[in-house]
Design goal:
The complex is a heterodimer of chains A (about 80) and B (about 525). Chain A is mainly α and about 80 residues long. Chain A contains four helices and no strands. Classes of the chains: A mainly alpha (about 80), B mainly alpha (about 525). The interface between A and B is medium-sized, with 15 and 22 residues.
Chain lengths: ~80, ~525
Amino acid sequence: MEELLEILEEINPDIDYETATALIDGKMLDSFSIVSLVTEISDAFDIEISPKYLVPENFNSVQAMMKMIETIQDEE
Amino acid sequence: MSITSVTFILFLLVTVVLYYLIPGKYRWLVLLASSMFFYMMSGVSNGIYILITALSTFGSAIFMQKIADSQKLYFKENKESLTREDKAKIKKKNNSKRKTLLILTLILNFGILCVFKYSHFALEQFNNAISLFGAQPIEDTMKFIIPLGISFYTFQSMGYLADVYWNKISAEKNFLRLLLFVSFFPQITQGPISSFEQLGKELFDVHEFSYKNYSWGIQRMMWGFFKKMVIADTLSPWVYDVFENYAQYSGITTLIGAFMYSVLIYADFSGYMDIVCGFCEVLGIKLTENFDRPYFSKSIAEYWRRWHISLGVWFKAYIYYPIAVSGWNKKLGKFSQKKLGKTFGKTVPASVALVVVWLTTGLWHGASMAYVAWGGVNGLFIILSLWLEPLYDKCKSKLKIRENATWFRAFQTIRTFILVTFIKVLPEVGTLSEGFGLWKNIFTSKIIPDSWQTLLPFIDNIYDDHSLRTINVVIFGTMLIFITSMIQRKQPIRQFLGKFPLIVKIAVFLVMFFLIVYFGIPASGNAGGFMYAQF
């Protein structure tokens, strides 16, 4: 979680990620941020995020992102 | 069958009556029968292509699902004996089979689309290339009738297939249900391009008759007919007169023509969406929305998130993300970060994906270099704004501009509307050089209009009573679109109307009906000929 928060802070430090639950639906993160985020997460967690995971539900909150990372880790 | 014709209204009426007469679980069969009837009315022979798409998509998805299901079962039955490496090997082998199926089906379906849409364009480019070496051009004798809605149903079907490939959804096991998803008549000619997850649920759920859905649906259809038949069909000959004759017109007349085009295409396309979404609402079916007040956008990127939304979502899901997060692009991003700095390097994977997306979007809209350039210009603005964002933020901070200040938001909105208008007209004039010629004429024409007739030469007998009334109705209609958009910021327009007494609602309905009948039909030489249907 800490690692993910650090990555997010670097992308946009003005967002309170711990409480945000609509990062995509609330237009706080756009598709450019998602692309940067995917690269950083892939490197940090050593996973391959396929395009099928790139849906708003997986990026709306830190918790959703962690859940997605765990799912991919389980699959791999 | 023209969507603004009486025949179509009768066809809708019969569909609605049959839909609600039949028991809930069979209602989708009425929609399938209506969709087949509607499609066959455009030419029986072209039905073969939509059947090929539906059959190939259905078969391929079923095979992919079978492979995935067998793998799951095998893993479950051999849970104890299989090692992690064994599982990885099996997964790799099965994924490769599924990928082959996906690629073959994509080639088949996009191949059909390309043959119909791009053969003339490809031959033209080939002839241009060989003429550089002095070779004789090949005569273009190809004659195609493009199957109705081929761009829309191909994209929708291939999106479904990719979703099955990615295990986002399970393959549909009933061919007739998939055929309905591919051919659903309200969206076949101009979209929206929907996902199976969303539209499938709407089509196959049981919807009971509701007065609210019926009333709201009819109101939305009326608004759509008004936008299409009164505003778009009246503006259409005026706009195309300017596009054809701009060289003889003043700069201000050309500029008026360009802005009229922005109103025309919005009224035409969103009018169609209102008609079909309204009709589906009567059936209790919610279609994906394609517009979110796009002319109120503050940047080109935002505009494209609010105009033809379903196409943007499709490109984002199936072209932009797969390219932007692909292994080679990520490597390119890292290399760029090392060589060009972290801030700029980070934008490289997204920029590469955007170039592909926008050139493809251009080609999707039309098989000409003018459309490719149009896509390129849109992409260029979006990529430049991505690159220049840090600089832009610095400028705003130095000039102490508050992002939320009303004047600044208004400035951004007006600036975006002007830019969008200039970009929009580029491919519509004809060739690319004619498009640039129109831009040039706006700023360099030496003609000065000295009367209303020379300012607005595209209107015959401008002082005639009917012409004056028509101009007033178009201005009134355009203002009405603007006002309704302002109201929609706070609440849906029909919710707003619902607060008024019944007599006011009836009056609005009657005025709208009168305007459609009086101004719509006589002004509409090509009623039913929607602009986006050509794509």
